[in-house]
Every structure is written in structure tokens, then in C-alpha cells.
Design goal:
Distance between the termini of chain A: 60 Å
Structural class of chain A: alpha+beta
CATH architecture of the largest domain in chain A: 2-Layer Sandwich
Shape of chain B: globular
Mean pLDDT of chain B: 94
CATH superfamily of the largest domain in chain A: PmbA/TldD superfamily
Number of helices of chain B: 10
Radius of gyration of chain B: 24 Å
CATH class of the largest domain in chain A: Alpha Beta
Strand content of chain A: 35-45%
Oligomer: heterodimer
CATH topology of the largest domain in chain A: PmbA/TldD fold
Distance between the termini of chain B: 50 Å
Number of domains of chain B: 3
Low-confidence stretches of chain B: none
Largest sheet of chain A: 7 strands, antiparallel
Number of helices of chain A: 10
Shape of chain A: globular
Mean pLDDT of chain A: 94
Helix content of chain B: 10-25%
Amino acid sequence: MIDRIKQALQDCGVDLWRINDVTEESAELFFVKKQLDTRRFKDVRKFEVTVFRDVRDPAGGPPQRGFTSVVLLSSMPDGQLRQELNAAYYAAQFAANPYFDLPDPVQAPLKKKTGPLAQEPLAESAKRMARALFAPDVHEDAFLNSAEIFIIRTQHHILSSNGTNVSYTDAKAKGEFVVQCREPEDVEIHNTFSYDGLEEESLSKKAAEALSFVRDRARAQRILKSGRYDVVLSGNAVSTVLGYYMDRSAAYMVYPKYSTWQVGEKVQGQEVSGAKLDLDLCATAPYSVEGIPMEDRPLLRAGELRAIHGPNRFCRYLGVAPTGGYEKIRCENTGRPFEELKAGPCLWAVTFSDFQMDSMSGHFGGEIRLAYLIDEAGKATPVTGGSVNGSLLEAQGGLEFCSDRYEAEGYSGPYGMKIKNVSVAGV
Amino acid sequence: MFSSLDTVKPALKKLVSALSVQFPYASVLAVEDAWRRWSVSRSGVSLSASGFGGGTGFVVRVFDGTGCAEYSFNEFSQEDISCITAVLTQRLAALEGFEPLPTPIPADGPAQLKRATPCRVDPGELGDEAILNKLKAIREKALAVDGRLLDASLGMAYRSCRKIFLSPNRDLDQTLTWTTCSLSMLAARGQELKAAYRPFSALGGAEVLDQVEAAVPEVAAQTLELLDSQPIPPGEYECVCDPDVTGMIVHEAFGHGVEMDMFVKDRALGKSYVGEYVASPLVTMHDGSAVEEAATMFFDDEGVLTGDTVVIDKGVLKTGMCDALSAARLGVKPTGNGRRESYERKAYTRMTNTYFEPGTHSVEEMIASIQYGFLLQQPSSGMEDPKNWGIQCMVDVAREIKDGKLTGKIFSPIVLTGYVPDLLKSVSMMGRDMKLSGSGFCGKGYKEWVKVSDGGPYMKAKIRLG
């Protein structure tokens, strides 16, 4: 198929192109309680072709480069391939932007993921993860209401007209589950997971922790009063807040001047009484979709910006080396153990219905599903209802982290974070 | 357009026949997809035809001794029939060992249909150049409004897809086209960026583009107003929701809670409230294809014909929305709400066009009736809580109302919280005119994005804001 696409590109007179050949297979299990609801399998292969077209400005201005992309399937006859590519090449002239060089060519042999998840039959991995998930589900008061498990394997092959030819394989075990507790109030908590390996022990531990939280939510009271609190966030909510720094430093935000950040700038502000942020960008694949080799790199050191990052075009415009788009952040900050960090008085917001960080405005917030109102003596009262509505721009100078670590799909770093003096709407 | 499904349809029928020999039930959904997205902003010009969902492909559904199973693929010809049958059999055998959820095989009554939704201005015929030129011209006009505007982003997207559903007794064929546009404007207050946004949508083609230009002055004004916004003092207030905010409450706060796959899982409080008052008698709620908006369809992704579902009738919860498998498990009729993000994904109970019926009041009457409260506009996000009917909705604009008049003061951003029936029972006025918006996609939890529309009239209710 690759040869057919290359021939069609040549027939259409397309000199500049990139092909992303992605094959995906999956086995998926869907449960209601412990009973199997649906089983699914998938085998798909898609060829996304991006064509570039240089456009001269009739008024004599600088040259421009347009591009567009189209998905091709191996079932398409040659005539249809040419038709699709011709249409894309014609359209590319209307999507012209200031000229930019394509990514530097890279050639490398296949980077093959190893380990049981990458090598065992998909169905076997799905069964192992299902057993691990349900292992702690042995009590009657709190239980798994439903679950979805996806074992996904992908193969990526990236080629371009300027000589890039790289490929790699990947495998993920991901999904979601809902835990429920019926007494004294019938409640649930939604959870997600994603692992690069067959992390059966981690999944069992996550399910056990979720069952514990849902028991507490069932006895949580609607007594939260409006006011300002020192709020402790944990787990994925910490990652969501720190995502602000990854977004604001991205070339796609800096180039259009949505973000004014520059390398060397103290982006946490001049007055930092709390933790000075040490953040890294983490590579989650060997290459970006454009075939740019991905590697871990420092983002912030002591609150000072070290990198502008992102895909090829915007980085080229800004005169920085294209890094590819990152999807994971690592926070190197540490502090007291989590137990001490959440010593009161504070509000430890454990789960939200949907915790949001708006990287444009700097506001974060969400409706509280379970929080612990912790008093000065350390007594924790489970509460539910109400909402957090804070501004990171106001709070970022006084952040505090714990020493306990947390690993998730897009995050590695402290489990907990304290944000001082945050507005909370009570019930 | 979409001729390739005609070529493979005879082979797909043979596939269903071959699978029916081995399995008590077999069907196939075939999808042929055409997407296109255009955008202009300070970041540049963008045009993509690579789609949002899974694109073109197939999904087979069978029932075996355990229950329902599906196989998704995107390469198919008649020669693949025996291979698909063998792959499915082999993989299902490898997954044995779990207790099945008892599921009766859904009904497969005879049905034949071939229909298409209207499309007045085909974006393909209008052409990329004309579309991008129009978007660029509107952007220039928008930026000329005020020097404090940092950017104006314009986007247009359309999807036209053909879906064929084949089972032993059904032969259904539909072509659906929707187009959406968006206008977003940005202004900066130091490091804080404030944005105002207007969505536009239609069941149809590029005719929706005609609505965008007229919205420029209003969006620009709102963007600049947001520069002076401040956080709201938390509390419960008398509020007037504009049709977009009404739509978010319909969809997020209540709609997700009556998706009946949640009834099967015992995840929805609504299950125990059927036949009871859950809202003010002013509230009547519909879901379905009785209106023409972005989520209108003739049959769902499980081959069930669609219609109009009255979910709440004058405050009383009548029924939920239901996919075919959940209906079989619950012993009710499916409502045509079994939808997939793409052929690559499972079908769940999903909303389509969901809205409150209009009432008798004008927005001016609503505002005049409030001593102190807010006019809520520009919803930004929402999340369902079917189990506990908790509300989490966020809006970007709360306009202060004092002594029956708008004061010009704006609060932002705003989190709406509370208990859904409390909010719906507090509805005291419904506006005369109804508006639906289908610019967005709806997720089930944090995934499974499908096109939906929601809306209703202006609505007055008591809401907890923070």
C-alpha cells in the first residue's frame, strides 16, 4: 500500500508529503458488576497522508506553504487514491501559511515494544487485567458497578518525502470502572486507568483505593460552607493543574501570542513563597506524528521556563528546534509526606465530577464529589457537594507538594498539592 | 459520493448470511465517511479532510452462547467473509471464563429504508477557496472592531456520512450531513485570557456560514466585557438561562441521567422516578429526530428506527432513552438511541437532539421579575452525575440583574452546582422561542464522542452559583 500511495503521489505531482501508517488491534471487555456485557475486537489500518504545496504570492511577497491531510484505505483502488490526493493537493494551496521547513529527516530501524502486554495474545492480557481489577471486589457494601477494559496494540510507520522513515510499536492497557456503595447513601465514583504494561498489581491497588473512597462518599455530608479554604488536591487533579504550564509554554500558544512566555522567564511570578516548580516534559512515544524523535526535557527549573515545545511548524516560526507534541509532564518537586500536607485545617478534595483547568484564563474548578474537611486537630469529615473555583495566577506563588509519588498516563510526580486561599462554594 | 458501499453491499449481505449460520443473530453496520474542517486564526489557516471519528469501516455484531460480541474492521471484500467468521469464532473462544450478563437477542423485525437529510449548499460545491475566503473576511471584520482584541478564530466543519445496516430482516440506508461553524474572540487581561464564543449548527451544508458574520459585534462586545468580569459571591440566585445554558442543563444535568444503559447498571437515580414529578409542570423534555438539527437521523447504529421520545411531560418523568441491548435487558422498546462514536467503538445509549419545549414568557418578562439574580450565558462545559443527580455545569458569563434590570456588571467564570430535581422544580418561567445548538460533541464519561444538539427556550430557575 505504501508503494501504491507513493506512486499515486508521484502521478499527482506531489513532491512534499508525509505518510502516517497506523495499524491498531484491540480486545475489549465490558462488564456490568462481574458479568460480561459485551466483547469487542478491532483490526483497522489507516494511512493518513499530508500533502504540502508551496504557493507564490502574486504580489511578490514571501513564499508560503500550504498543507492538508486525507485518510486513505488499502481497499481504495488506484484511481480513488489519485482522486483523493489530487483533491487534497488542490485544497492545500488555499491553506497557505508563512513558509516553514519540514522536519529534519530521520531514519531508524523499527523500535519494538517488548514485554507481556506487547507480546501475549490480546485476549489473554484482557482476561488478566479483568481478574486484577475485580480481585479487591470481595465486599458487599462497596463493589465494582461496571468496568471497561481495552487492550490495544498499535504499529506506527512514518515516512516523508524528505527521507524520514521510522517506525515503532506500542501497547496499552486502559479502561475505566465505576465503584458503588449503597449505604448509608447510594453513591458511585468513576475511575480511569492507563498502563504501558500488564500492571495487574497497580490496577488491583487502584480498585481497592477507589472502593475505600466510595465508602467514604456514601457517608459524606452536605455540610460544606462557602468561603476560602486551603485546598489539597490529589492524583489526577494535580496533573490537571500543572498541565497549565505545559499548555502555556507550547509553541501553538506562544506563536499566536496567546502566551507571552519566553525561555528564561520566571513564569510563576516574581514572588514565590511556596515551591518553585521543577517540571519536565516526558516522551510517551519514540517519535511524534511528524517523525520528530521525542525525548524527555526540562520545562521549568525553579519556576523559570526552560523550553518552548511543540510540533514542527510553530517551532520553526519561533526559531526553536521542533520537539514534537508532549502529552506527559513530570513534576520533580517534593515536600512533606502527604499525611502531613493534609494536616488541617484544609479541604482535601478527592474526587470531582469533572475537574477543569482553563489554560487560557488560569481558572481551575469543579463540583466536589468527595472531599475531607480536616480540622486543626486532624479530624477528617467526609463532605460532598459544593464546588471549587480558583485562579492559578493568584495561587501559583504559594503551592506546596508532598513527598508521596503518583504515576498516571500523563503525569509523574507528587500525589498531593496544597493551594492556599481558594474560593469554595458550599451547599 | 459514497458509491463504495454500493460495491460491497452484496458481499456484506453474504457476510451476514454466513455469520447467521454460526450465530443466532448477526448484523453489520457499514459507514462511509466524508469530513472536512477549515479554520482561520492568528495561528494560520488550516484545512483537513482526515476526519474526527473513525472514518470509513464496518462493525459486525453477533450473539453466541455468552452474549453480544462485535468485530470492527476497515478492509473488506467478499474474499474476507470466511476469514472474518473464523477470526471472530477463535477470539471469542479465547475470552471464555467469565459469567455472562443475561441478554435476550434484540428484536429484528423487518424494515427497509433509504433516506437522506437535506443539504442546501454542498460545502464541496462551494469549494475550499470560497469557504476560507469567507472565514478570513469575517475574521478581518471582527479584529477591526477594537484594538484590544487579541484574536478572532473562525472554524467550519462538516460531516457527511452514509450508513448501511444489514441484518437478516433489515436493510437500512441513510445519508446524513451536518455543518457547524464557530466564532471565538480573545482579549488579554495580563496573563489571563478572556474569550467569548458563538456556535452555529445545521442539519445541512454550508448555508450555516451565513449566520456567522451577524454575530461579530455581539461576540466582540462580550469579549471586551469579560475583561472587567470578577468572581461571583457563591450562593443560590434567581437566574435566567439563555437557550444555550438551558440546553446544557437539559443535556448534562438531566439527559445523561435517563440514558437507560445506566438503568441496566443501576447507575441512574431516574430509574426509580419514572411516573413521578421530577420538574416543574412547565417542563416538557424531548429527545429524538422530530426536529432538524445536527443529530437528526433515520435509524441508529443498531438498526433501530428513530422517532420522538417525550422524556418529561409537564414535569413528570415518562421514560428514558434506550439502546437495543439495554431495551432487551429491561424488557422495553428501544428508542433509537444506540449510537457509536464510530464503527470502531461500542454502541451505548446516547442522546440525539434533546430539548425543553417552549412556554409563554418573553426574556424581558423574566428579567423584570427578578429582584436580584443573573442572566447566564455561554456554557463552557458540563459533566453528568446520573447516580446522584448532582449538577456540574460551567458558564462563562453571569450578567447581574438588579430590580428587574441588567446592571451591566459581569461575573466569570461560574460553576453551577446543586441537585437536578431541585433546579428543575424551581423552573418558574419558560420563554416563547426555542433554539437548539448542535455545534458540540457529547462524551460518555470522558470518551465516546458523538454529535448531539441541545437547547430550549430562555428559562427562569433558582440555581446555586459559585
